[in-house]
Design brief:
- The chain has 9 helices and 9 strands.
- By secondary structure, it is of the alpha/beta class.
- It has 2 domains: 57 residues; 212 residues, Rossmann fold, CATH 3.40.50.
- Strand 5, helix 4 and strand 6 form a beta-alpha-beta unit.
- The C terminus is likely disordered.
């Protein structure tokens, strides 16, 4: 009996030691794992902070339009006039996916590189750098600034989309005149824009039209498109191709994409617009 009692006590003692060793090992592993996690998290945190800092401090880069085919003047003439003017109104028209947003944002970046405050309306915050400020209303844009407004990303009711778009444009034009703001408005088709509004545009930037787009454009826009239809076909291989119609330059040019552009940003812009259109 005494021997069995001794063996029982010895077994309990050994089991206790084993359990203690296992618990100690578990705590040591937890401490090591925690230290490793903190170290790795710190590395990723620093990398993320560094990337965010680079995005915040990235400066706007100026890239001029490249001349493709000139009828009158040069792209340099157009850009010198555009970026030095206090207040201008421009329209960007073209088919879906023709590069209207890329063109508008690149011009906005060029303005920013010259010291102008720039704002965007209809893009949300999708992929935009810190120096492009997003606004929901043109009244939020200060004097002397530049505003890029994308009709496709601004929420209009389905019943009154045309009247709402024209109301917005009228408001933009009124504000532009009184606050020395330059306005660049993106739309797929001029049929949604009143003739009187089109008359007030200082320049047109026409991207590749869709198959039936020309048939539904306003009279003057249709005439301009038809006058260069053959050129669009011949030069269509250039993804940055844009027809510039202004007093300073009439002809084809090619625009670079914004320095912050990426496939991810492009999809983000599209997502913002799809979300807005669903209203």
């Amino acid at each position: 009996m005494a021997k069995k009692s001794f063996l029982r006590k010895a077994g309990s003692f050994v089991a206790g030691i084993i359990i203690w060793i296992l618990k100690a090992a578990w705590h040591v592993l937890k401490v090591i794992a925690g230290a490793v996690w903190d170290f790795v998290s710190g590395l990723f945190g620093k990398a993320a902070a560094s990337a965010a800092k680079k995005t915040e401090t990235r400066k706007a880069q100026y890239v001029a339009l490249d001349e493709v085919k000139a009828f009158e003047g040069t792209p340099d003439d157009f850009e010198n006039w555009l970026y030095s003017s206090k207040s201008t109104v421009g329209l960007i028209l073209g088919a879906r996916g023709s590069g209207k947003s890329g063109l508008g944002l690149k011009l906005l970046e060029n303005w920013a590189s010259r010291g102008r405050r720039v704002f965007a309306m209809g893009f949300g915050n999708a992929g935009l750098p810190a120096w492009i400020e997003s606004v929901k209303s043109p009244e939020d844009v200060p004097n002397g600034a530049v505003l890029l407004a994308d009709e496709g990303g601004i929420s209009f009711s389905s019943r009154e989309s045309m009247s709402d778009a024209n109301r917005l444009l009228s408001k933009l034009l009124f504000i532009a005149r009184h606050k020395d703001i330059s306005i660049l408005f993106i739309s797929q088709n001029s049929a949604n824009i009143e003739v009187n509004t089109i008359r007030q545009a200082d320049y047109l930037l026409l991207k590749r039209p869709s198959l039936l787009q020309k048939d539904f454009e306003r009279g003057k826009i249709k005439d301009v498109y038809e006058s260069v239809a053959d050129d669009f076909k011949k030069l269509g291989g250039d993804k940055g191709l844009v027809y510039v119609y202004s007093d300073a330059f009439r002809g084809f040019a090619s625009n670079a994409l914004p320095s912050f552009w990426s496939e991810r940003a492009s999809k983000a812009f599209g997502g913002v617009k799809l979300g807005a259109k669903s209203n």
